[in-house]
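User: Sorry, folds how?
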Amino acid sequence: MSEFKVFRVYQDDGKIQGKLEQSTLNDLSPGEVVIKVAYSSVNYKDALVAKGSGKFTREFPVIGGIDSAGYVVSSENKDFKEGDAVLVTGYEFGTNHDGGYSEYARVPTEWVVPLPEGMSPKQAMSIGTAGFTVALCVQRLEENLQTPEHGPFVVTGASGGVGNYAIDILSGLGYEVVAVSGKDSEKDKLLALGASKVIDRNEIDLSGPALEKAQWGGAIDNVGGDILAWLTRTTKPWGNIVSVGLAGGSHLNTTVMPFILRGVSLLGVTSSGCPTELRHRLWNRLATDLAPKHLDKIVTRVAGMDDLPDIFDSLLAGTSTGRTIIKIAEQD
């Protein structure tokens, strides 16, 4: 196989930097399945890996991209054959195992998910880790008996990819979704995705007492920090808050009062560590009852690998909105 283009992240004298270069199949991390990548996507975690802002990568260099979808080229496992349409997300893909910013990927068999019937690689990457994370949130909420009847459901960090999918999917399930965003320019879009109301994050009083007026049935929080603490104080009895992000800080300054006096539950999800069977089941749900209805509004850009450095800068600066997918190969 001839050389192909990759976006590889290096650490040199403590400085982390990604760059485009040529590579070969022999240079890739080991695995039983080789995939010709058609599309990848951009997630906050990808930017952290590429810029060294996170502590996800233990060994360098590594090809970035925690999402990929494409077609099997070869497989040492009989479960997959040449030409099968597949996707890979999670595990250590794109962090400690060469990822999806590459024309070819090589991965362990258990990481490979067959594309659900009727879903193309482009659609799969439009959903990607962002949409899959929301499916995981729905799973946790359902397990903890959350229902639309419990009251308005808050989505913070609503302008980002996970926030967009949370609004779309939850409103499709019958929830009255209240979006929280600091970007006034995104208000019309959030309403179009299914939000019943948009609250300006900057107008929220974050200095309240240990318990405030209970007004939210539950929440999916992409922000962390003071916003997450505010949600614990304002969620109704027996409501559930799912924590999925830390754009506003990793520390949580709260008390036990919401948990022991109102029975509020704070739930966590991690897409990278999702059990294989559940991963397959949720991807099938993302093609059926959890299928997003507004992909055309959520995916705001289709870019190439050459654009990755600028995209990462925008994402980390907080100026990015919606979701960007990366076209790797001509096939779809």
Summary: The chain is about 25% helix and 30% strand.
